[in-house]
Design brief:
The structure is a single chain. The chain is α/β, with parallel strands linked by helices. The chain contains six helices and seven strands. The protein has a seven-stranded mixed beta sheet, sandwiched between helices. Helix 5 links the parallel strand 4 and strand 5. The model has no long low-confidence stretch (mean pLDDT 97). The structure holds S-adenosylmethionine (SAM). S-adenosylmethionine (SAM) binds next to helix 1 and strand 2. The site of S-adenosylmethionine (SAM) has 20 residues, from helix 1 and strand 2.
Length: 177
Amino acid sequence: MDETMSDFHFKLMSFGFKFRDFFKPRKNILEQAGIKPGFHVLDYGCGPGSYLTAAAELVGKSGKIYALDIHPLAIQKVNTIAAKKRLSNVVTINSDCKTWLPDNSIDLVLLYDTFHSLSDPNRVLEELHRILKTGGILSFSDHHMNENEILHAVINGGLFKFFEEGKEIYNFIKEDQ
Ligand SMILES: C[S@@+](CC[C@H](N)C(=O)[O-])C[C@H]1O[C@@H](n2cnc3c(N)ncnc32)[C@H](O)[C@@H]1O
């Protein structure tokens, strides 16, 4: 099991995200990821739920958002937002890797600002590959890594290939094995 950050650090990070999200609304990033109505989306390392409301609205009632995080405070926060905003299409998962989702069931994975903190990133990539549908998209960003590091880390295992680049993200497509 990966280590969680302290509650203090999590709260500090969540506070900082309020400013980040005010100046750069997360909806713009989701549009770069190609999110669509009816999509089943996994937000891996969802943190305090910055993407949650926009994602839940964009996929609509026929879609689903699975918000996964290792930190119990993230799960608590996401559940609170979902209840307050009556987002009926949100499911939380408290985990450090395993999603318990069926094979080939997810259209889009958001892996934003989380990869650098994974102790076993390849295990997580294998799990994301397992649950993505054929043609499914892994949308990636991590400001702790440069472009070469990102492309190398995601493509090298042979599970994903580069698909397209947005202003703030890289989209990879699942390689069928
Ligand atoms: C910097 S935050 C990013 C949150 C969100 N993706 C965003 O961009 O607003 C990284 C999140 O990844 C979570 N995390 C770290 N290691 C993890 C792991 N092995 N599995 C799941 N979540 C993890 C942390 O608890 C934290 O909430």
